[in-house]
Amino acid sequence: MAKTVKIGTHDGTFHCDEALACFMLKTLPRYKDAVIVRSRDMNILDTCDIVVDVGKEYNPSKHRYDHHMRDFNESVSTVIKKPGYSWTMKLSSAGLIYCHFGHEIIKHLIPEANDSDVELIFKRIYSTFIKEIDGIDNGITMFNEEPTYYIVTDLSSRVKFLNPAWNSKDINVDSQFLKAVELTGQELVQHINYTANVWLPARSIVQEAIDKRFEVDPSGEIIELIKHVPWPQHLFTIEKEQNVQPPLKFVIFGDDNDYRVQSVPVRPKSFVCRLCLPEPWGGLRDETLSSVSGIKDAVFVHSKRFIGGHITREGAITMARKALELGKAI
User: Fold this and answer.
1) Each residue of 114-140: pLDDT tens digit?
2) Alpha-carbon Rg for the chain in angstroms
3) Of the candidates 69, 3, 1, 78, the residue with the CA atom closest to the CA atom of residue 33
4) pLDDT (tens digit, 9 = 90+) per residue, 134-180?
5) Which of 25, 165, 185, 195 is the most exposed place for a label (fewest CB within 10 A)?
6) Average confidence score pLDDT of the chain
7) Residue 47 in contact with residue 213, Cβ under 8 Å?
8) Tally of CB atoms within 10 A around 286
9) Following DSSP, what letter does each residue of 103-122 receive, concatenated?
10) How far is CA 243 from CA 74, 259, 324, in A?
11) In angstroms, rounded to a whole number, what is the distance separating the alpha carbons of residues 249 and 262?
């Protein structure tokens, strides 16, 4: 009779990190049918094949992955000692399992991915998904100052709400934990599939646009995407890798029945731009915008001036060129 494989984690109140860690392990064939054992009794945990988030020990050779010890300061950079893995945030149990098994998990979920793609997906998933869980679980604040508002719909918060409330009755905490495993797992798989099948293929489109930038405008500071794809991170990566000069300022792309001109931000997800659309255009639409800008059939410019629109491709390029000219004059 085959031995029952066991994944150990702590009992009581559960959190996002160990729920996700358990899911990640169970995506792998050797842990697929594993039983999850929830306990703090070391005699019970010692019988488990792998233990996460409990046990007072981090020892990959024994498959022990706790992160609560006083002297634990492991990060991606210390676990994966390779160039390009420079994150220094302290890991949660999810981050630990991801560092040790993440490449294998991605390869299993996306079998057609080559080694280079697996590396890119791994890094993208850590920076956009796992890092958040590490930060929340370890109590690392996002800001140096008090935030204007709090986010309460994040994955860690949704897992927290699956725990039985103090005044609830007849709710099985182990059953609720399995719901948390499923919830975190669905989100991870969604992020991996998006990264592999949507985000990663967009790189070639951004690369082509950068290669052809001087065909759009002699300055080389305006690019045109043949499709509206997720471009900011790719743009920054390609600029750095290939030392693209001068730095790009505007991106043109089609959007439904018209065209957009968007300013390149100073970093991905920032609304601070390298060069905004002209201040007099901000918040204007249609005839008013056309009159002020001197560009016929202009559609709008956002009040924050990071994006605008025109009914034609040529008009959008004209908006970008004029914005570039006025910006340089200032």
Assistant:
1) 999 999 999 999 999 999 999 999 999
2) 25
3) 3
4) 999 999 988 888 888 888 999 999 999 999 999 999 899 999 999 99
5) 165
6) 96
7) no
8) 11
9) HHHHHHHSTT--HHHHHHHH
10) 33, 28, 21
11) 9
